[in-house]
């Protein structure tokens, strides 16, 4: 009998402890801070008059999600008459390799149109099915990235067709700092259309405001702004979940490395494509890792350290070959300068291995790939960095002043 009583007492204690733990866990959930930033898509209810009685189109992909990872297409399906979905390079789910065509499909009965492939602009037939075009897509903060070009082409076509255009704004994952040269008109292409710096420092909504005015598009544009975002913020400061923007940018941190080494991938150097850390590495079979690391570390560039590294890409440049070079470690993002670092990496390797760095021709035309990515020829033709880098700084500062009227955040 005593054993039975003790067992019952023990059971009650266990149950009470479990209930208390559950209560504490529930209280902890309630007390956890939410994201520091409210996304534009999460404010759709405040702007419902824009969509009342309208057929809505949406430019998006897998990155179009709210803070609870609900997709923008599902949000618009529930709250508007969504009649068309438009997808950029890499497709609706971000699973298509760079440069590959994206076939049309349907999403929950809504037609999906590719804006990368046979046409990079919405056609009149596509636009006939909508009254308002919306955008919710995550940019990475680098000029040489095609999502803002997809938006820009859609803005142009919507302006011609008299369609209203709404951007649900999202953070620039690498903050509001502006770096690098302005794009020269002769280097304009789909991966860089307008004279903005390499690291442009704008949100996608600010970018839309800037080009609508400066390019005189005459578009009926509304940007639904975020709440809580500040220009000093990097992605980790927002409290928001990150969805990889494309196959080679799986993490928010990768975006800053992409600004640094993305242009170097347009030489015969490997930038880690085909490894588990794309854009963190720079190397080649002809390089020697300790020599490259020692030379770069001797420069004492701000906010970065270079580890001697050997790696074997599974695909891409030098697939299955041993490459040597460096792995980049950003030690202080606040003082780190991506354009400065990328330029110095290239120059150091050229100095260590004269005549080894090769510049491939651009796709289907005259000129060179690196020129259209960087936006000018100066780095390829060997302009000394002591002349080049101060000019880049001046151009970025001048752009910062020019773009000030279009900024939405401090």
Topology:
Blueprint: H1 2-31, E1 55-60, H2 72-79, E2 81-87, E3 105-107, E4 110-114, H3 124-128, E5 132-136, H4 147-161, E6 164-168, E7 179-182, E8 197-199, H5 204-214, E9 221-224, H6 254-261, E10 281-284, H7 289-297, E11 304-311, E12 323-330, H8 338-352, H9 369-374, H10 378-381, H11 385-403
Parallel strand pairs: 1-2, 1-5, 2-4, 5-6, 6-9
Antiparallel strand pairs: 3-4, 7-8, 10-12, 11-12
List keywords for this structure.
12 strands; single chain; alpha/beta; 7-stranded mixed sheet; 3-stranded antiparallel sheet; about 400 residues; globular
In short:
With 410 residues, the protein is α/β, with parallel strands linked by helices.
Structure, explained:
- The protein is α/β, with parallel strands linked by helices.
- The chain has 11 helices and 12 strands.
- It has helices at 2-31, 72-79, 124-128, 147-161, 204-214, 254-261, 289-297, 338-352, 369-374, 378-381, 385-403, and strands at residues 55-60, 81-87, 105-107, 110-114, 132-136, 164-168, 179-182, 197-199, 221-224, 281-284, 304-311, 323-330.
- The strands form 3 sheets. The protein has a 7-stranded mixed sheet with strand order 3-4-2-1-5-6-9, sandwiched between helices.
- A hairpin with a 2-residue loop joins strand 3 (105-107) and strand 4 (110-114).
- Helix 4 crosses helix 5 (204-214), helix 6 packs across helix 8 (338-352) and helix 7 packs across helix 8.
- The termini are far apart.
- 46% of the residues are buried.
- Residues 1-31 have low confidence and may be disordered.
């Amino acid at each position: 009998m005593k054993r039975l009583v003790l067992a019952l007492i023990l059971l009650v204690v266990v149950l009470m402890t479990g209930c208390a733990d559950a209560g504490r866990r529930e209280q902890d959930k309630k007390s956890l801070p939410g994201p520091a930033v409210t996304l534009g898509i999460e404010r759709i209810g405040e702007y419902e008059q824009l969509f009342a009685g309208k057929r809505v189109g949406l430019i998006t992909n897998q990155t179009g999600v709210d803070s609870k990872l609900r997709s923008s297409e599902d949000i618009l399906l529930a709250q508007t008459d969504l009649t068309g979905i438009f997808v950029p390079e890499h497709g609706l789910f971000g699973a298509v390799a760079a440069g590959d065509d994206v076939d049309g499909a349907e999403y929950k009965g809504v037609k999906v149109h590719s804006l990368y492939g046979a046409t990079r602009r919405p056609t009149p037939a596509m636009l006939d099915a909508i009254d308002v075009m919306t955008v919710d897509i995550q940019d990475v903060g680098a000029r040489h990235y095609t999502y803002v070009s997809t938006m820009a082409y859609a803005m142009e076509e919507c302006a011609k067709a008299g369609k209203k255009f709404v951007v649900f704004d999202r953070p620039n994952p690498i903050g509001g700092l502006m770096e690098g040269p302005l794009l020269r008109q002769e280097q304009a292409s789909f991966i860089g259309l307008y004279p903005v710096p390499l690291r442009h420092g704008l949100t996608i909504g600010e970018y839309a405001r800037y080009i609508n005015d400066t390019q005189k598009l005459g578009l009926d544009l509304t940007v639904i702004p975020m709440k809580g975002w500040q220009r000093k913020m990097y992605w980790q400061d927002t409290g928001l979940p990150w969805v990889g923007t494309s196959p080679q940018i799986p993490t928010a941190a990768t975006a800053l490395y992409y600004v640094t080494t993305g242009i170097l991938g347009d030489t015969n150097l490997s930038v880690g494509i085909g490894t588990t850390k794309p854009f963190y590495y720079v190397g080649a079979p002809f390089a020697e890792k300790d020599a490259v690391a020692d030379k770069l570390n001797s420069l004492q560039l701000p906010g970065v350290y270079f580890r001697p590294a050997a790696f074997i890409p599974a695909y891409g440049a030098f697939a299955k070959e041993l490459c040597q070079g460096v792995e980049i470690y950003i030690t202080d993002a606040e003082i780190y300068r991506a354009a400065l670092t990328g330029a110095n990496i290239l120059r150091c390797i050229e100095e260590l291995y004269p005549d080894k760095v090769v510049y491939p021709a651009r796709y289907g035309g005259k000129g060179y790939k690196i020129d259209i990515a960087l936006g000018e020829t100066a780095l390829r033709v060997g302009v000394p960095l002591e002349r080049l880098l101060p000019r880049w700084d001046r151009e970025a500062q001048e752009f910062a002043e020019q773009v000030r009227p279009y900024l939405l955040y401090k």
